[in-house]
Specification:
The chain is mainly alpha-helical. It has 6 helices and 2 strands; from the N terminus they run αααααββα. The chain has 2 domains: 12-72; 75-156, Arc Repressor Mutant, subunit A. The protein has a two-stranded antiparallel ribbon.
Length: 171
């Protein structure tokens, strides 16, 4: 999943070896983390599904409250950006909602999740985090790359005005 590149530090071969070992270890940890996060999301979805089968609303709320306490709160904006970063061709708002729901994000606190996602995407677009485009009559969203963002933000330098110095003869 994660790739390391060989480093060529001729002046410090011991440091290069240390760095390579550290990168290998970090790569293994990242792969384990991805696997653990996927398993956590699967358990969240399963427990949420089972909680819906409870007939007592108080029991249902108790289970869902415990789930909320165990979820690492990242926020809607972060999770939308994460979803879009995994799909370079972009996603529709409905596809983003499905992704969030399938990956453990609790959308039940929003009365209209599609609308909330749409408003969040519009805010993200104003900050140049995402951009939208139309394809086959549907609006798709994708994460902007840094080049696109920089082209939009960076302005041409303002030319400096020459200051005129007082003439020595006139003073």
């Amino acid at each position: 999943m994660y790739m390391t590149t060989e480093l060529d530090l001729n002046s410090a071969p011991q440091v290069a070896e240390l760095i390579e070992n550290a990168l290998r270890n970090l790569s293994e940890l990242c792969e384990r983390r991805a696997s653990i996060e996927k398993e956590i999301n699967n358990w969240h979805m399963a427990i949420r599904g089972m909680a819906k089968m409870l007939t007592d609303p108080a029991q249902q709320n108790k289970v869902l409250s415990r789930l909320v306490l165990m979820r690492h709160p990242t926020g809607l904006t972060h999770d939308i950006k994460e979803a879009l970063s995994k799909f370079p061709d972009g996603l529709t708002t409905a596809q983003i909602r499905s992704y969030l729901d399938n990956h453990g994000f609790d959308l039940t606190e929003y009365s209209q999740p599609l609308s909330t996602i749409g408003v969040t995407l519009s805010r993200m677009e104003k900050k140049l985090d995402v951009r939208s485009y139309n394809k086959e009559g549907k609006k798709y969203w994708k994460v902007t790359n840094i080049g696109y963002k920089l082209m939009q933000v960076v302005k041409q330098p303002t030319p400096r005005r020459k200051r005129s110095l007082p003439d020595k003869d006139k003073t």
